[in-house]
Amino acid sequence: MKISVIGCGYLGVVHATCMAELGHEVVGIDVDKSKIASLSEGKPTFFEPGLPELLASALASGRLTFSEDIGRAADAQVHFIAVGTPQTGDTYAADLSYVNAAVTALLPHLGAGDLVVGKSTVPVGTAEMLHAMITAGSDASLAWNPEFLREGFAVADTISPDRLVYGIAAGTATGAGNAEAILDEVYAAALAEGTPKVVTDFATAELVKVAANAFLATKISFINAMAEVAEVTGADVTQLADAIGYDARIGRRFLNAGLGFGGGCLPKDIRAFMARAEELGVDQALSFLREVDSINLRRRGRMVDLVNEMLDGSAAGKRIAVLGLAFKPNSDDVRDSPALDVAVRLVELGAIVTATDPEALETARRKRPELTYVATAEEAVRDADVVVLLTEWSEYRELDPTGISTLVRGAVIVDGRNCLNPARWRAAGWTYRALGRP
Ligand SMILES: NC(=O)c1ccc[n+]([C@@H]2O[C@H](COP(=O)([O-])OP(=O)(O)OC[C@H]3O[C@@H](n4cnc5c(N)ncnc54)[C@H](O)[C@@H]3O)[C@@H](O)[C@H]2O)c1
């Protein structure tokens, strides 16, 4: 199929590349000139495992091109909207100006029977509004097809999603059956593998995405609330998680207590969901999400306090090694990163912070130039009074406690992700502390 993908950020470029890899002819369009130039040369503008190889092969196949010119979308029949929907500056609501601008720019290039497919995460009701705009201004139609990819696994999640959700308007110009048939052709490979498909209305499709993120955020904040209780009772939250996780109704995944969630999706999505619920007069239904958000943010403060405690109550003038800056491993994304937030707060306490991350040094430097960055964990821990692990990259999990104990000034580690083996670190002479554990 001939496809355009409007917006080539974390979501759009992975989607465009994977669609080309699956045999479709794809043009990726973005308003950011430098992004288009870099992608056209086969250089992704962010770190995502497997993407550089796939991008190279898709470009070489001739099926993938990038352009700043929205007019290039005119050749395509299916148009994915993958632009950002960040939190607005002063409220919890999502900023829909990029989505509106993208659809407005696309309108004059839509042909009869074209399908615009919304992928961005939007407040419920947006698709209905866009659908009216599209059907009034063209002979095209709209479907809503939320994206569930996880950064770090984005390629695999796009090629083999765990489910497909189509939000479709009945009785439109192209007809519901037609929109479904077009999407089935786009996703023929995944459907042939047996990927479950839910065909529904716009509102349900939009809500599926935010409900999924609200659930995941709640699961993380639930275990972090248990960590708060564990901290005052001497209990061990990681054992608690193991024990409740054996219950298949609960499950162990997403029950890792620690510094909490961040990134470009979960925090802004639960806030936008609350803002939308308020507009709809059902804010009470989601008031628990305010607590989910608060628990999550409290973990960052608790982490700073714990580090301070390990430095006899005064971080000022002490040397702190920060391992990890990305909001999660296998990503260079530092949007609302708990790790970067904690690192900055430690600097604000007067500590001398030396931070490192396998992939997020440049993204972190751009956002927080005031921190001192080094390339390796070994450099970061040199002469440190305390080592603070903030993102659970596998290379940090595998650090040799005996080896690095010769580099530090104080063999003290605070594990913000509960990802190290305390017995191993203690046996090597370290003082080990973590959130939610004795
Ligand atoms: N990142 C993820 O893991 C993920 C997963 C699922 C859903 N989403 C959702 O996907 C959307 C995009 O997220 P992202 O992380 O890729 O954001 P991003 O900020 O990385 O990318 C957005 C891109 O859109 C471009 N853009 C903005 N306005 C444009 C316009 N008018 N025309 C063309 N391009 C335009 C920007 O230049 C940018 O490159 C958001 O709604 C997000 O919630 C993201």
Give a structural overview.
The strands form two sheets. The protein has an eight-stranded mixed beta sheet with strand order 3-2-1-4-5-6-7-8, with helices on both faces. Helix 1 packs across helix 3 (51-61), helix 9 (202-233) packs across helix 11 (266-279) and helix 9 (202-233) runs parallel beside helix 12. The termini are far apart. The protein is an alpha/beta fold and 438 residues long. The protein has 18 helices and 14 strands. The mean pLDDT is 97. Strand 1 (2-6), helix 1 and strand 2 (25-29) form a beta-alpha-beta unit. The protein has three domains: 2-200, Rossmann fold, CATH 3.40.50; 210-294, N-(1-d-carboxylethyl)-l-norvaline Dehydrogenase, domain 2 (Orthogonal Bundle); 300-434, 3-Layer(aba) Sandwich (Rossmann fold). Residues 6-12, 29-32, 35, 82-85, 98, 101-102, 105, 120-121, 147, 149, 151, 264-265 line the site of nicotinamide-adenine-dinucleotide (NAD).
